[in-house]
Amino acid sequence: MNKLLAEVVKKDATDLHLSVGRPPILRIDGSLVDLEGWPVLDAESVKNLIFSLLSKEQQEKLMDSRDIDLSMTFKDEARFRVNIYQESNNLAAALRFLPSRVRTIEDLNLPPVLHKFTQASQGFFLVVGPSGHGKSTALAAMIDEINHSRQDHIITIEDPIEYVFMQDKCIIDQREVGVDVSDFHRGLRAMFRQDADVCMIGEMRDPETISAAMTAAETGHLIFSTLHTNTAAQTIDRIIDTFPPHQQTQIKMQLAATLLGILSRRLIPAVNGGMINAVELLIANSAMRNLIREGKTHQIDMVIETSYEEGMISLNRSLSDLVSRGMITYDNAVIYSNNPHELKMILEK
Question: For residue 275, is it within any domain?
Answer without folding.
Answer: yes
